[in-house]
Amino acid sequence: MSTERTPTPLDALADRYVDDACALSPFTATFAGVPGHESEVTDVSPEGFAARAELDRRTLAALDGVAPVDDVDRVTLAAMRERLGLAVELADTGHDRGGPALVNAIESPLQTVRDVVDLMATSTADDWAAVAARLHRVGEVLAGTRASLAEVATSPDPALRPTRRQVAACAEQCDALADPTTGQLAATVAGAGLDGGAPLPAALTADPDAGLRAPPSAFAEHG
Question: Are 116 and 87 in contact (CB under 8 A)?
Answer without folding.
Answer: no
